[in-house]
Amino acid sequence: MAGEWSGPVVLIFQFWGASLADSSSELGPCSSEGRAVRAGFSLLFRRLPRLESASRPVPLRQPSVRTRSLVRRMERLPLAFTVARLEKAPHPFAVIKLDSQRTDATGMDRLTVGWRPLERSLDRPAPVQASRDALAIGANIAIRAVVVVVTLSSLWAGPFIDFDVQRFSALSVAAGTPYRDYPVEYAPVELGLIRLIGSGDIRATATRLVIVCFLLDLLAFAGMWSGWGRRTAITYLWLGVPLLVLTYLRVWYLPVALSVWAFALARKRRPSGAGVVAVLAVFAKLWPIALAPAFFAETRRRSLAFVLAGVAGGIGWLLLGGIGGVRQVLTFRSATGWEIESTVGSIVWLFGRGEPRWEAGALRVGSSVGLTWLPAVVLGVLLCAVWWKALRSGREDLVGVPSLVAMCALLACSPLFSLQYAGWLTPWAAIAGRDSRRIPIASAWMIIVLTAGVTLALWQHADSLGGLGAAMLLARNGVCLFLPVWFLARGQPAVGAAEGDRYPPAPPGTSEERGIQQGIESGGGTVSRLVRHDASLGLA
C-alpha cells in the first residue's frame, strides 16, 4: 500500500466521477447510498487515532472545514453496529484504490473514484455487465412494445370479444352508486381506474386498458429498480414475459405497481409516502394485506400514515357502499361456486365430473356454500405460521422469500385463482431471486410458465383443457401449495441473503440493521473493497 496509508482497515466507496464531498451532498439522507457513505466515513474516522500509533510516524493534518462539516452531518445517525460488523466481517479481498495524487491529509479531500455496484465476480468488467443489462432491458421493453402494437392492431382489425373488457365497459357507464345500486366485484381504487379508462365503446376501452397496463408495468419496473437495484428489476421484467399472453387486457398491474412502490418508498425511509401508497394498493386489490407484516417491518413500525390513510379509506368505502360493498368484493359478487382454475375447483372439475357454469364473471364448478370457511382457516394458519417463522428468524429478507410464500399460500387457498393472478407473484419472486435458496425462484418460474401454458390450452380447447392443459393446471396449483409447506418444513434461512454470499449475514437484531445490510447487498449502496492490511499490528 503506497503513501501514508499503512495499517488501517479502510472502506472505500466509489461514485461516478465527482468529488466525494460533492457527490455526498446529492445523496438523500435515507438512501442506501447515503447509508453506505456514512458507514464508510465513520469507519475511516474511527481508524485515524490508530494511524498515529502505527509502527512508523504518519504525518496528518486536519481535514478541511468543508470535510469536517460533511462528516458531522453524516455521523448524526447511529451506525456503530454497522461499522462494527463490517470491521469484523471476513472478506477475501485485499485490494484498495487510492487517488493518484499524494497528500499528507487524511485522504478525505482527494478520494475521488467512481461508483460501481459489487458484482458476483469482482473481476468482471463493469462495462460488459452494464451492456448486458442494457440489452436485457431493451429486449424486454421491445417485447412489450410489440405485444402492445399487435394487440391494438388485432382488436381494431376484426371482431373483438373479451368478457373482462366488456365488464369494464359496462361498469364505466353504469348509472347509480356502485355497490348500492349495482353489484361490483372490484375494490374502490381498481373501480376508479376502470371508470376512468372505460367508455361505452368496447374497443376504445380495450385500447386505453392496453396502454395503461403497459405503463403500469413499466412503473412497477421503475419501482423495482429504485428499491432493489437494476438486476432485480430485470428479473421482474423476465418473469413478466410469459404472462404477456394475456396481452395487457387485465388490470393486475395496478396493485402490483402500487405494492412495489409502497415497499420501495419504505426502503428509502419514507414511511409516510409508503403508507399512503400501501393503502392505495390494498384498496385496489385486497391481497396486499397478506404482506402487512413485511411492510410494518420495512417501515420500522412508523406506520401512522398507513393507519390514518387506511381508516380514512375504510370509512369512505363504507359510506360509499356499506358493508354489502365489502362483501361483494370478498365474495366476487356473492359467487357460490369454485372457479375452475382454483385449487379446489380444478380438482372438482377434472375428477369430480362437475359441469362448469358461467357465474359472476368466471367459469365455476360445484358449490362453495358453507365450505368457504375451510380454505379461509387454512390460509389464516399458513400466513400466521409463515410470518411467525420469518420474523422469528431475524435473517430473512421479508420482502423476498416470505412474501412470495405468503402470496402462494393466498392463491392456493383462494376459491378464485384466475390466470392473471399469477402476476401478483412477479415482484416478490424477483426479490426472492436474490436469495441463495433456489427453490423459491424456481417455483415462481414454474407457476408463471405453467399459467401461460394453461392460457394457451384454454385458447385451443374452448370447452376443456385437454390432457396436457389439465396436467399443467394441477401442477401449477400444486407448486403454489408446495412452496408454503417447503418454507415451514425447512430449517433456518440460508446464509447470505442477497445475490450470493458476498458478506456474512447480519446477526439477528433490529430492522434497522437488516435495512442497512439489505441496502449494502442490494447493489444500491455497495462497498467496493474491504481492506485488511498488516494484521500483525492489530489494526485489522
Any descriptors?
540 residues; mainly alpha; 3 domains; 3-stranded antiparallel β-sheet; two-stranded antiparallel sheet; 20 helices; 2% strand; globular; disordered C terminus
Write the layout of secondary structure elements.
Layout: E1 11-12, H1 20-25, H2 32-52, H3 65-74, H4 80-88, H5 126-157, H6 163-173, H7 188-197, H8 202-228, H9 230-240, H10 253-267, H11 271-284, H12 292-298, H13 304-330, E2 338-339, H14 343-351, E3 357-359, E4 362-365, H15 373-393, H16 401-413, H17 426-432, H18 439-460, H19 466-489, H20 511-521, E5 529-530
Descriptive notes:
With 540 residues, the protein is mostly helical. The protein has three domains: 11-117 and 517-537, no CATH class; 125-331, no CATH class; 334-493, no CATH class. It is 57% helix and 2% strand. It is built from 20 helices and five strands. The strands form two sheets. It has a three-stranded antiparallel beta sheet with strand order 2-4-3, covered by helices on one side. A hairpin with a 2-residue loop joins strand 3 (357-359) and strand 4 (362-365). The longest helix has 32 residues, at 126-157. Mean pLDDT is 75; it is low at 1-33, 36-60, 77-124 and 495-540.
